[in-house]
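Researcher: Good morning. I'm working through a list of sequences from a screen, and I'd like to move beyond sequence-only analysis. For each chain I'm collecting a predicted structure so we can compare shapes side by side. This is the next one on the list. No need for commentary yet; just the structure.
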Amino acid sequence: MAKGSLVAGLAGVVLGVASSVVTLPGAVLPSKAHAEPDQRRARLYLAELAMLLEGARRLLLWTETHIGDPEFARFAHPLAEEYVDLAGRLVPPEKLINAHPHLLMVAENVERALDAAAAGDTPSFRQRARIVREELLTLESVLKQLKVRLPELAR
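Model: Good morning. Structure tokens for this chain:
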């Protein structure tokens, strides 16, 4: 919302009187047209969130099951770096703002885990993998509190 329309919206007070709504001059009522773009934006963000999380989980899982293969981790590391970049460029809708830091933590720790695996540092890899799992659980909890579900991805 533009700063001017926000000021106009705040300047107009909306009063609920019985079953009718009375507005004072300058009031801006939310319309269905305003709600639809917000809903589309939330759906798009959730789809992007789901894709990034799925990719990060798969990279981590594959690396865990092939921990003795640093060549794979070196191959996968640039993908993890791209997830960090993509997650950092996403702008969550206001309703989902509390979920976004957990996406960033997942992406960053997957990248660091793969970097550790590529260097043959298994203890650091396992520590970062644990952090990823904790952040995934926290993210799931935040989404549940917001009564939001991630879209199912085709398998």
